[in-house]
Amino acid sequence: MTKRIGLYPGTFDPITLGHIDIIERAVKMVDELVIGVAVNRDKGPLFALDERVKMVGAEMARVSQKSGVPIRVTPFETLLMRFAEEQSANFIIRGLRAVSDFEYEFQMVGMNQKLNDDIETVFLMADVRFQFIASRLVKEIARLGGAIDAFVPVEVASALRAKFNGK
């Protein structure tokens, strides 16, 4: 049987409890999971690529240990389907929070299938506890000095506070 390798791509600026929920459920379907941390200059990330990779890596070490599934955290700045091929991924995992997410993702699946129809896309609905969490909103709350502990892991909350408080 072929090894099932999943790829969960994103900017992860920063990684949230919603992302981690999707990852914890995704590892139940794969033999190995690759977390692709996208450079994505268009979004103008708050955290540098190496900071995001480090934060994601710290959280994934915990998830991997708990699940027993190997998780690789790898930065990328290429076409997603090319990256998926380089990682030998069988499928791409995407999280959905709302109907508006689906419209964008539906269009992307069509494009990705034209590029490589051997790689499937699997959608996981966000748990209702996390459907409202968006990295951009978490950053805004942190910038304005609000409480973010319910949205991100402890280490990520500290990193956000340090970014906005200069500490």
Strand tally is: 5
CATH secondary-structure class: Alpha Beta
What is the 3D shape? globular
The amount of beta strand, in percent, is 15-25%
| Count of discrete domains | 1
* Major pleated sheet: 5 strands, parallel
Given as residue ranges, the uncertain stretches (5+ residues, pLDDT < 50) are none
SSE-based structural type: alpha/beta
Listing every helix as H and every strand as E from the N terminus to the C terminus, the arrangement reads EHEHEHEHEHH
> Compute the gyration radius: what is it?
16 Å
N-to-C span: 50 Å
**Which architecture does the CATH hierarchy give at level 2?**
3-Layer(aba) Sandwich
Could you tell me the CATH topology label.
Rossmann fold
Major sheet strand order: 3-2-1-4-5
Helical content, roughly? Answer: 40-55%
What's the CATH superfamily, by name?
A: HUPs
What's the pLDDT, averaged over the residues?
93
- Give me the number of helical elements: 6
Could you describe the 3D structure shown?
The chain is α/β, with parallel strands linked by helices and 167 residues long. It has one domain: HUPs (Rossmann fold), CATH 3.40.50.620. It is built from six helices and five strands. It has helices spanning 17-26, 49-67, 80-86, 99-115, 135-143, 154-165, and strands at 5-10, 32-38, 71-76, 91-96, 120-125. It has a five-stranded parallel β-sheet, with helices on both faces. The longest helix has 19 residues, at 49-67. The protein starts with a strand and ends with a helix. The model has no long low-confidence stretch (mean pLDDT 93).
